[in-house]
Amino acid sequence: MRKLSERRARQLQNMTNDLKIAREEEEHKSKQLAQRLVEMELMGSALEEARAAAVEANKSKSRFLAMMSHDIRTPMNAVLATLELLSITDLTREQLRHVELARDSGDQLLSLLADIIEYARADGWKLDLQMREVALPDLVEKTAATWQPLARKKNLEIFTSLPADCPEHITTDPTRVRNMIDNFVSNAIKYTSDGRIELIADIVSEAEGTFLKFSVSDDGCGIPEDVQAGLFEDLDRGIAKESAIEGTGLGLSICKRIVQKMDGTIGVESEIGFGSVFWFMIPVTMSDGSELAAEKSEALVTPKFRIDGRAPKLLVAEDVEANQIVITAMLENMGCETTVVDDGSKVMDALAREDFDGILMDVWMPMNGMDAARLVRANRKYAKIPIFGVTAFAADSERTAILASGMDGVIAKPINLSGLHYVVGQICGLDIEEGTGESDHQKRIPDFGEVAFLDQTKFSEQIDAVPAGRRAALVDAVGNDIGKWCERFSQSWTSRDQQGVNAAHHALRGICTGFGAYALLEKVDSIRQSGKLGASDELLPIQDMLDYTIAALHRAQLQTAGEGTD
């Protein structure tokens, strides 16, 4: 009996010891778990701080890029404007050629700046192609002429070579092609100390189609074979490693992206001591030059209106500077004299100062056009003066309200020459067929997923109507107006000012549809329709979209200017 009690006592003691050990292990694991939780909380805080720092760094980078773009573009625009003024003075043929080369180089520099700004963004470079007809021999000769002065400073000579059966015209993206050739020629000059540089264009016919092959050969130092493979990668400094010359390599990586976008190929052939040949080959289509000829002939045809042998006098009420420039330029091309006021409240004062044959009235201004029209009609003296409303969105309900205010008709933005021609004809009392007037303007705005930052066709409709000497100023004004209204939209959104949001949205709709900036408008539309008034985080995409749009505007203007000189 005693032995049984002792055995049970030992078993009880063992169980007690096991429970104690288990309790200690549990306490140890609990402490470990608590420590792990603390460590995870610390890691989470660190990750959140790192994420916040990354977001802030990205915002700072975007602000810096936007500021840098503006600060560089501003003096460049002044330089280009000065060269433009110089070109219309009394110059010799040789002096004019030098001025044109300087302007062309400045245009290329601004285009490259826009690409670098986009390339440097965190979300990568969004490359858009603008396929147009171009005179191939002119493109080659102009490129060589641009770089010839710099080459001669190093006692180098640039030669060009085109095949005897070279086509006169092709369809491609001339700005992108020029970007790539410029990069190749620039590198050839940089890394060649003696000899010659040759720019070669050739048309290659293969089973897959017709290709344009551009090659730039030089008598430079050559590139080691193990370096060649990485030359077209982002920010490669292969050449710089083999010489004392610094280079970013950014240009070649951009060239590679352009070629890939065009479904082409790019490469280099080089040997130490025997120079290099950089080349690219892209698919192209042959053209007959009809597009360029049509553009030139259309530019020469400018209908001139007259009322009793004099120029029609029109009052333009429009608060957006870019629209003022476009409308007045179009009207002046038609032989009209114009006076501009920037608010409906100033219309009556203008009418009191001088007589007008008609009024073009923007519908949405600080004092809207419909209220201004009612004031005009309330005065018997102006009861019969033609008034046409100008609006970015002429829905049936708005059209009815515009006509009810006393206006005689509506012209929808974006305004084109044919639509404005019809309206001025109506003002002058002429029987002109409406043709491609209002109905052609009211086209569907594409969804964001199917549209680039800028609709080149819509942009060209506006820019082509303005004299070449005023186009840069127009694009600057468009950029300033878009920036101003985006800022007002953001301020009104943050302060929960629905009326201010609506006013800014309407102004942006007018400018963006007029110049084809559909992507920005789509973004603003989506924010407005989200219903999250006051939520500042909803506004974050606008600044990047604004920067992209302004860069695209300038690049499109430069491309248009370049084609005009081909």
Please provide a written account of the structure.
The chain has helices spanning 2-87, 93-119, 136-153, 174-190, 225-228, 238-242, 250-261, 290-300, 321-333, 347-353, 369-378, 396-404, 417-427, 438-441, 456-463, 468-494, 498-515, 518-530, 540-564; strands spanning 132-135, 157-161, 169-172, 196-206, 209-218, 265-270, 276-283, 285-287, 313-317, 337-341, 358-362, 387-391, 409-412. With 566 residues, the chain is α/β, with parallel strands linked by helices. The chain has three domains: 132-290, Histidine kinase-like ATPase, C-terminal domain (Heat Shock Protein 90, 2-Layer Sandwich), CATH 3.30.565; 302-440, 3-Layer(aba) Sandwich (Rossmann fold); 448-564, Four Helix Bundle (Hemerythrin (Met), subunit A). Strand 12 (387-391), helix 12 (396-404) and strand 13 (409-412) form a beta-alpha-beta unit. Helix 16 packs antiparallel against helix 19, helix 17 (498-515) runs antiparallel to helix 18 (518-530) and helix 18 packs antiparallel against helix 19. The longest helix has 86 residues, at 2-87. It is flat and about 140 Å long. The termini are far apart.
